[in-house]
Amino acid sequence: MVTTARDETTKADLRKPLQRFRGAAFVTGLGLLGLVVVMVIRYGFDNATPSAVYSPIHGVIYMVYLVLAIDLALKARWSVKGTIGVLLAGCVPFFSFVAERAVTRRVTEGRKL
C-alpha cells in the first residue's frame, strides 16, 4: 500500500485547528453556563428579556463551535461516532470542557477519536 502526503496528518498540521477548537470549546462552555442563568431568570423570575437577547448570541457561539469541531474532525480523521460525541458535548453544560480536554489529549498523542 502506498501512503501519500494526504494520508499523513502530522501534529503540526493539527496545531492551529486544535487551538481554534479549544478556544471555541471554552467559549461554548461559558456560553452554556450563561444560558442556564438566563433560563433561570426567564422561568424562575418570569422575565423573558434576557433570554430574548442572549439566546441568539448563544446560537451563534454554538454554530462556530460546530464548524471548528468539524474542521478539526476532518483534518484529524476522527470517526463519525467520535465526531458526533464532540459535537453533542457542546449541548450540555460542562461537557464541552470535558470534551476539550479529551480531544486535546488524544490529538497531542496522535490518537484518533
TrEMBL record:
Top-rank taxon, per record: Bacteria
Annotated GO CC locations: plasma membrane
Subcellular location: Cell membrane
Annotated keywords: Cell membrane, Membrane, Transmembrane, Transmembrane helix
Membrane topology summary: Multi-pass membrane protein
Domain DUF3817, chain residue ranges per copy: 18-105
Membrane-crossing residue ranges in chain numbering: 21-41, 53-74, 86-103
InterPro entries, per the entry: DUF3817_TM (IPR023845)
UniProt name for this protein: Integral membrane protein
Organism: Saccharomonospora azurea NA-128
Organism ancestry: Bacteria, Bacillati, Actinomycetota, Actinomycetes, Pseudonocardiales
